[in-house]
Amino acid sequence: MVSEPLRAYGRRVLTSLYPNLFRAVVQIVVAFTVNLPLFILAVLSIAFIPLGVGVVLAPVVFQAIRSVADQQRTWAAEWSGVAIPSPYRPEPAGAANPWRRLRWLLADPASWRDLVWTILNVPVALVLGVLAGGLAVYGLEGVFLAPWLALISGYGWGPFWPLEDWGAAGIAGSVVLGAALVAVGGPVGPFFLKAHALFGQSLLAPTRAALAARVEQLAESRSETVDASAAELRRIERDLHDGAQARLVALSMSIGLAEEMMKHDPEMAAKLLAEARESSGTALTELRDLVRGIHPPVLAERGLDGAVRALALTLPLPVEVRIDLSGRPGGGPAGRGRLEAPVESAAYFAVAEMLANVVKHSRARRAWLQIEHSGDRLIMIIGDDGTGGADPAAGSGMGGIERRLAAFDGTMAVTSPPGGPTVVTMELPCALSSPRTSPSSGTG
Predict the structure, then answer these.
(1) DSSP state of 391
(2) pLDDT per residue over 209-222, tens digit each?
(3) Residue 417: what pLDDT?
(4) What domains sit in the chain, N to C, each tagged with a CATH number?
C-alpha cells in the first residue's frame, strides 16, 4: 500500500507538470518565433538607416523588442517571483519626429541590452525550457508509451534504453527510469524556469551604474525640493511679517487710539476707524493673495484646466490656450479626469511662472499655451513671439521651475534663439484619476 506522504508527493509532481510544461513551451515558442525574427529585423533596420528606410523601421522594431521584453518581465515576476524593473529612459518631447525617436531609442543603453537578450534568449530558452518541461515529459513517455509499443511490436525505446528487442527487463527498466525522471523533473522544473528569469534579469534590469545614477538624481532632487520648500516657507513668513501682520498691528493701534479719542474728539475717532476699516480690507486682500500663492482656490475647485484658463485671462497680452486632459487620442471632456493634487499644483505654478516670465521679459505681443495628457505624461508647451534669448541659468525663475518639476521626475526644455520665438516644453510623469473619484468631481 502506498504511503500517504508518497501519494502527496506524487500529486504535487503531477500538479506541477502542466504549468511547467506550458511555461517552458511558451518560452521556447516565443524565442524562436518572435525573438529570432525581431533580432534579424533589428540588424537589417540598423543597416538600412543610411538609406532612410531604417529611420522609420528601426524605431518600430526596437519598440516591438521592448514590448516582448516587458512581457518577459511580467512572466518572470508572475511565474518565478523575479522582479525586473523597467530600465528605459522616459520618452522626450517631440518623439513623434522619426529622427528624434530614433535618436532616443538608440541612445538608450537599455535598447542594446534588449537586443543582446533577444538573440541570446533563443538558445537559453531552448535549453532551460527543455530541462524545465522535457525531463518529466520524457519520463512519462518511458512509463506509459514505450512499454505498450514494446508489447505490441517487440521493440521499443525509453529513457537511456537503446532500440532493441526488449523483454520483461527492458519494460521494467523503462518504467522505473521513466518514473524517476517524472519524480525529479516535476519538482526541478520551476528551478529551471527561475534560472531563465534570472538570465532575463541580468540583461533586462537596470545596470548598477543606472541605479547609482538614479539614486544620485533622487538625492539631488530631494535636496532641491527641501531647499525650495524652505525658501517657500521663508517667503510666506516674510510676506506675513511685512504685509498682513504689519497692517494688522497698525489696525489694532488705530482702533485702540480711536477708543481713547472717542470721549474727547469723536470726529478724529471716526476718522481713525475709517482708516482702520480701510487697513482691514487691505490686509484681507494681502492674505487672500498669500493663500492664492500657496494653493489657488480656483485650482482646487476647477482643476488645472479651469485654473490655467482663468490665469490666462488676467494677462495683459492675448494667450491662445489649448488644453486636453482627457488622456484619449480624440480628446473631449467626456474622458476628463484630475491629476494628483501635488502634481496639479506643481504644473499650475510652473505654467504661472512661465507666463509671468513672458509678460516681464519677452516683450511679446502674443503667447500660446498647450497642455495635454498623453500616455502617462503631462506635456505643457508655452511659447511667445518675443525677443528670445531666454536662459534658465540667468536667474529668470526658470531654474526654480526646473527644480520644482525635478521633484516629480519632470523635465524642462527651452528653445529660445535670439530674436525669438521662445518655446518651453515641460513634462511631468503622472496619471489621471477617474472623473468620478477626482477631487472636484462634485463641484460645478
Answers:
(1) -
(2) 666 666 666 666 56
(3) 85
(4) 4-204 (no CATH), 229-294 (1.20.5), 297-429 (3.30.565.10)
